[in-house]
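Exercise 7.
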Amino acid sequence: MDINIMGCLCCNPNRQPPFQLKTRIFGHAAFSQPVQLYQLTNKHGMELSVISFGARIIGLKVPGLNGQMVDVVRGFKKFEDYQTDEFYFGAIVGRVAGRIHPSTVKIAGKAVHLVPNTQNVHHNGGKNGFDTAIWTVQPIEEDDRNGVSGIKFRYVSPDGSEGYPGELVTEVEYRLTNRNELKIRITAVTEATTLLSIPCHAYFNLGGPVS
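Solution. The predicted structure, written as tokens, is:
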């Protein structure tokens, strides 16, 4: 079932807001957890598609030179492909992106044993990193006239997760503008000294899917 979320139009009930948000179930993760797909569109038809599994960008349609919409983000059409994805397509990666070798490091003068992915290498946050987490979602609504202009994802990584010290609360905001911009903002707050490097791991192909 599709759900349209839009701001109050009490001043002009026939007026469409410049931003619109649709959501539906994209698949089911472990323990039958539903994975939601969110599609945010601006007044020019630019469309951002993100899912709650890894707070991933799975599509970004922008106006091309010929006026047609072009998807400039690489991704998959089926959720099952994201479950077996080894390249972190569109995901938020953490707590630390990249490789840490050896997987035992010193943090605040103490030896910390991070969970290795393979052969004593801790890669992109470990075996259960941010890319496979189910993030909570909150629409970003500036005012009633504009409707929903963005989406905020939130994930709480508990103390000791994948070996990292301190609880970590991470928020990721994806916003569209009517200048056809995509803005990404990532913030994180920790309760202890820890390692941190959180990127959005989207693959952009400005030539579109056929190039």
